[in-house]
Write a structure and sequence with these properties.
The complex is a heterodimer of chains A (505) and B (352).
Chain A (H helix, E strand, L loop, with lengths): L1 E6 L2 E6 L10 E6 L4 E12 L5 H10 L4 E5 L5 H8 L2 E12 L2 E3 L11 E5 L2 H8 L6 E6 L5 E5 L8 E4 L6 H14 L3 E6 L21 E4 L9 H16 L4 H16 L5 H9 L4 H16 L13 H8 L3 E6 L5 H20 L6 E6 L7 H14 L1 E7 L7 H6 L2 E4 L5 H10 L4 H8 L6 E6 L7 E5 L15 H5 L20 E2 L1
Parallel strand pairs in A: 5-20, 11-16, 11-17, 12-14, 12-15, 13-14, 15-16
Antiparallel strand pairs in A: 1-2, 2-6, 3-4, 3-8, 4-6, 6-7, 9-10, 9-19, 17-18, 18-19
Helix pairs in contact in A: 5-6, 5-10, 6-7, 6-8, 7-8, 13-14
Chain B lengths: L11 H12 L24 E4 L6 E3 L9 E13 L3 E14 L2 E15 L3 H13 L10 H23 L4 E5 L3 E3 L4 H14 L3 E6 L3 E4 L14 E4 L1 H8 L3 E3 L1 E7 L7 E6 L4 H14 L2 E2 L2 E2 H10 L3 H15 L2 E4 L3 H6 L10 E4 L1
Parallel strand pairs in B: 1-9, 3-6, 3-17, 6-8
Antiparallel strand pairs in B: 2-10, 3-4, 4-5, 7-11, 8-13, 10-12, 12-13, 14-15, 16-17
Helix pairs in contact in B: 1-2, 2-3, 3-4
The chains are: A alpha/beta (505), B alpha+beta (352).
Chain lengths: 505, 352
């Protein structure tokens, strides 16, 4: 292999005879004379533009049905075939190596005539990606089966985005991350809009190591809370931000809340009565409408026996545990109330160091997270200890600014050009890497970008998880569920016997 | 007779002589050329015939007779580059047989030669003796003509093998049956024609190089409505080139399909005219025609031709097997003519 072209951050490498280099593979360009090198990653492969190849192909087309004997006594055909199959790999420079150490200074350019190119083995690649790892999470495998692990430090305190089109394995990966974090004693909170995580803690299986660690909470059913626990600040926050309560009415709530609290009468019933007694008709209407909305969420209760607190649940998670908030059957407004309640409460608990940090998994967060919260989550809340992982199949639902602040992106297959454009504009790597690689990713394979892979983008086949992970997709026809791909009835050998490879004596 | 049956006709000496020439390379010291003899085996092909001075007889054809095997032969050569001592070249030849609508081929080569002023004469004598049974071959052509000459030897050898192998076939040559009177290939050509006749084969030679034009400047020599037909232009040809060329074939202008080019066709002069016409009529039913050119010959040409990719592959072969590295050929023509230059085939200077 040799350098064909160097243009900015892009290197074209020609391989003749062609080598088995796939998208995502790493190549080392060693300039022996300079005692330096470049680590480049193949993002695309194509045939080399050999002079007269078109003529050759046309000639072969016009003689393909001929039977014949090639008396190639010198044996030149294999050399000719190698030329015709020569490949050019478009690569992106990832890092330099100077005096044996990785270096971010990419301004150095190798000498074409003294540079030797060779494909890095998977083991060598992983030495670049995982230098001196202590605690790791096994993520999956490289193409040839080499196990890839990512460091816990690559996720701890980090913002992650998992994106890709439907059915490519996003949720599977997020569950793998979640379960791996649980195993290492982390506390996780999941906003589960599709009810996909509810089976994780399946207690029916004695083999499930997570049974007892995963707590599925159904807001309004097994998760209710009192007004006293909620507190005026959270209540007002929900009323103002989620339910658009005007400032004047908010003042009235403060007044009512204080009075009820002083009289030790902070119940839903009393709150409703007090609101109903407000003399100003406009304010009364405004208050009662919000009160009804809150009530309809079933999140709040006056019955202490059925009420619980976030602290109660977090205590159950100490040493590793997850709270799955199942938002599946909740309306949009109620979802927002629940999420706002949980986030504000978590923030307060983190401020009080009740827990050191929480890994938050938010599936399709645009469905329940109001605009202003995005920024809050990735800036202030992150510093307090909420480490979010956003999972979405609509990349444009996540603000460009969030992509830019992401520490890790787990990118699954996208074929839609608009989706690719959105992701490529905002990710920490170049546009070509995203568009060339993401389009070709098979299901369950993702391109990992960011700190988790030491900024060496890596294509990983996500490993299986020993837990009930799949969402329960409902089908009308039973056969839909059992449909499998059958072996294609195509023969790779020409049935007529003609047009095959020529015989060479 | 299956085409595969003649696969025993392996030109081993071509292979061996070419290989030896490459292996000798390191020990060769150059000397200036002392050979000034011009060789032009194709001189009989590239004629310019102006017709219409008198009424040439028109022979109307019909698709008649039984289908017979048609065998087309073509060869190609290319200069691969220069070495310090001489030139590297490659030749390749193909025989294509059409029988009952089915085509098959045998392709020989590429054979690679390193020709120097030192080995030129020996190489030439060995080739002529081994392949064409010509012991008194005389002086070898100058270095720059050797590639073409080696190709000529391969072509004549293939033509002869086919003539000796088949019976009752139409054998198609690319070129003509005319040659300069001083040409050493005339006796050889006569012999091949005779050997073919003895086996009831008929040799038809199609020339793409002869320019056929009317005195008034037009090129539509035979009206489309008259196709398929032959125009007997033998007299025109011989009058135009009397004294310079020996015509072993009877010269016709052929238009075998309407709307196509009119091509020169030479048919063995020793074949009686009715049989010659019958042979062309049999060709009409036995082989496909594209632009008046037989498909067997077209395929033989296509299969023989060395493409740029193949030439690069051969460069690589020479580099790997014999340790020569091709460097860019100083392209004077390219520098002067730019994109209008040449055929785009890569050549190189080989350094040992």
């Amino acid at each position: 292999m040799q350098i064909l072209k160097l243009d900015g951050n892009t290197v074209d490498i020609i391989a003749c005879p062609p080598e088995d280099i796939r998208k995502g593979d790493y190549i080392l360009l060693s300039d022996i004379a300079a005692n330096a090198g470049l680590v480049v990653q193949a993002i695309n492969a194509g045939y080399a533009n050999i002079p007269g190849l078109l003529e050759d192909l046309l000639r072969e087309t016009s003689t393909k049905d001929l039977e014949g004997i090639d008396m190639d006594l010198l044996g030149t055909q294999s050399y000719i075939d190698a030329i015709k199959s020569a490949k050019v790999f478009t690569c992106k420079i990832r890092r330099a190596i100077v005096d044996g150490y990785l270096n971010d200074d990419l301004s150095w350019t190798p000498n074409r005539s003294t540079t030797f190119a060779r494909k890095l083995s998977e083991e060598e690649t992983l030495r670049l990606v995982e230098p001196g790892l202590d605690d790791t999470i096994p993520l999956g495998n490289l193409r040839n089966g080499t196990l890839v692990s990512i460091p816990l430090s690559g996720l701890d305190g980090k913002l992650n985005i998992v994106t890709g089109k439907k059915g490519t394995g996003k949720s599977h990966l997020s569950k793998l991350l979640l379960l791996s974090l649980l195993e290492r004693g982390a506390i996780c909170v999941v906003f589960d809009v599709n009810g996909e995580y509810v089976g994780l803690g399946d207690k029916s299986s004695s083999e499930n190591p997570l049974a007892g660690k995963v707590h599925v909470l159904y807001p309004g059913e097994n998760f209710k809370t009192t007004l006293a626990y909620t507190g005026l600040r959270v209540f007002l926050g929900i009323a103002s931000s989620v339910l658009d309560l005007p400032p004047n009415s908010a003042w009235e709530i403060r007044r009512i809340w204080s009075t009820l609290a002083e009289n030790n009468a902070l119940t839903l019933k009393k709150l409703g009565e007090a609101m109903n007694a407000v003399s100003n008709g406009y304010i009364r209407e405004a208050l009662l409408r919000r009160y009804d909305s809150m009530l309809s969420s079933n999140l709040f209760t006056d019955d202490l026996r059925e009420a619980s607190t976030i602290e109660d649940w977090l205590n159950k998670c100490k040493g590793g545990g997850a709270l799955i908030f199942n938002l599946k059957n909740l309306g949009v407004g109620i979802r927002q109330i629940v999420v706002e309640f949980i986030l504000v409460k978590l923030r307060h608990l983190l401020e009080d160091w009740f827990v050191p940090g929480v890994f938050l998994f938010a599936e399709e967060a645009h469905l329940y997270l109001r605009e202003t919260y995005w920024e809050d989550l990735i800036t202030r809340m992150r510093h307090l200890g909420i480490f979010p992982t956003f999972i979405t199949n609509q990349p444009d639902s996540i603000n460009e600014g969030i992509y830019r602040q992401a520490d890790n992106i787990f990118l699954f297959n996208f074929t839609n050009e608009n989706d690719l454009e959105t992701v490529s504009k905002a990710t920490m790597t170049d546009v070509n890497t995203v568009t060339m690689i993401a389009k070709a990713l098979p299901p369950r394979h993702c391109l990992v970008l960011g700190k988790a892979v030491n900024d060496f983008p890596l294509i990983v086949k996500v490993r299986e998880v020993k837990a009930k992970t799949m969402g329960e997709t409902r089908f009308f026809f039973p056969s839909t569920r059992t449909r499998r791909q059958e072996k294609l009835p195509l023969s790779l050998v020409n049935a007529t016997g003609s047009g095959g490879p020529h015989v060479t004596n | 007779m299956e085409l595969a049956d003649v696969s025993h006709m392996v030109p081993m000496d071509f292979f061996d002589l070419g290989r030896s020439s490459l292996e000798e390379m390191a020990s060769i010291t150059s000397r200036p050329s002392i050979d000034g003899v011009e060789w032009s085996d194709e001189a009989g092909d590239a004629l310019i015939l102006r017709l219409g001075g008198h009424n040439a007889p028109l022979i109307r054809l019909s698709e008649a007779g039984q289908s017979v095997p048609v065998i087309g032969i073509d060869t190609t050569n290319i200069e691969l580059g220069q070495t310090g001592q001489g030139i590297l070249c490659a030749v390749r030849g193909t025989v294509v047989k059409a029988e009952e609508g089915r085509y098959e081929y045998i392709r020989h080569g590429p054979f690679i030669f390193h020709i120097t002023n030192t080995n030129r004469q020996t190489l030439y004598e060995n080739l002529m003796a081994s392949f064409l049974d010509v012991r008194e071959s005389g002086h070898a052509p100058p270095l720059e003509k050797m590639t073409e000459r080696i190709r000529g030897v391969l072509e004549r050898w293939l033509q002869r093998q086919v003539s000796l192998t088949y019976r009752g076939a139409l054998i198609l040559w690319d070129g003509s049956l005319a040659a300069p009177r001083t040409s050493r290939s005339l006796p050889l050509m006569s012999r091949i024609l005779r050997e073919a006749r003895e086996r009831e084969n008929t040799i038809l030679a199609f020339s793409k190089k002869t320019t056929l034009a009317l005195w008034n400047g037009g090129h539509d020599i035979v009206d489309n409505r008259l196709a398929p037909s032959l125009l007997d232009i033998d007299e025109d040809a011989r009058l135009s080139y009397a004294g310079q060329l020996c015509f072993l074939g009877h010269v016709y202008a052929s238009k075998l399909r309407p709307g196509s080019f009119t091509l020169r066709l030479d048919i063995d002069r020793q074949v009686p005219a009715p049989e010659a016409v019958e042979a062309v009529q049999r060709l009409l039913v036995s082989d496909g025609l594209r632009e008046n050119y037989p498909e067997t010959l077209r395929l033989a040409h296509v299969l023989s031709k060395l493409s740029p990719a193949e030439v690069i592959g051969i460069h690589r072969f020479i580099g790997k097997k014999y340790g020569f590295q091709a460097h860019q050929y100083p392209n004077v023509r390219g520098a002067i003519l730019g994109p209008l230059e040449g055929n785009g085939l890569p050549r190189g200077i080989f350094l040992h």
